[in-house]
Amino acid sequence: MPKKLNKGLSLILGLGSAASVGLSAPKPAEALPFQDLIVPGIQYFQLSNLSTKQKVELGSNIHQQVRGNYRVGTNATVTRIGQRLARVSSCSQTPFKFYVVQDPSINAFATTGGYVYVHTGLINAADNEDQLASVIAHEIAHICNDDLVKRLRQTQLAQGAASLAGLDRSKLAAIAYQLAIDLPNSREAEFNADAKGLQYLQQAGYDPNAMPAFLKKLASRPSPPEFFSTHPNPRERIAALERRIADSRR
């Protein structure tokens, strides 16, 4: 049986004693064209072949941007769920970190190097631990699939900077933050994260049906979450998930 979240006490009350910094509301990421990111001779990051250590470093630099724009804290329950899923993931060697963003909107996002963020609005919308875990599993899958790094490479190519020596790491973090916060993943990336996230959910012992169930719940709200406008149609995602769950039982 799915484990109920204690809505009376609320997971979010745990932020009262957690580290929480930044502003009360997010501010838009500032666009930084790649041609402004070139520092000749610096080899901090070669996007074609980032090591796990470099991804962690990049994720840490992006985290500083997140902290400057959101009220961010940690929560023991969110961390426990996240680490349980990370252990069965295909990139379990990554030192994952899980954060709660004090924001009433229903959303979650991930960057690279193990950094996962869940909004308080999404936590409050979940009926049980399994539903919350389904979202965290999806975000872990984005990291394991290197989706943000792939988008950085695509942006670099589109700006004609593919052959240049290197990028300044602080400015690279700024454009990575912009991609993670403001711009959607591709349709293919979202479906792949659903598929891999569902696998992690099952392997960690959570109810796989929680993933399509939570999507159904969010889609049925009078005002569906804003992220639906940048993601594949929820009906398609739900159907694909339900097919995968049925196939896994055969």
Automatic annotation (TrEMBL):
Record carries keyword Zinc: yes
Pfam families: Peptidase_M48
GO aspect biological process, one term: proteolysis involved in protein catabolic process
GO CC annotation terms, alphabetical: membrane
Any GO MF annotation of the entry: metalloendopeptidase activity
Keywords carried by this UniProt record: Hydrolase, Metal-binding, Metalloprotease, Protease, Zinc
Domain Peptidase M48: residue ranges: 75-244
Free-text comment on the cofactor: Binds 1 zinc ion per subunit.
Family stated for the protein in its record: Belongs to the peptidase M48 family.
Name by which UniProt lists this protein: Peptidase M48 Ste24p
Lineage of producing organism: Bacteria, Bacillati, Cyanobacteriota, Cyanophyceae, Nostocales
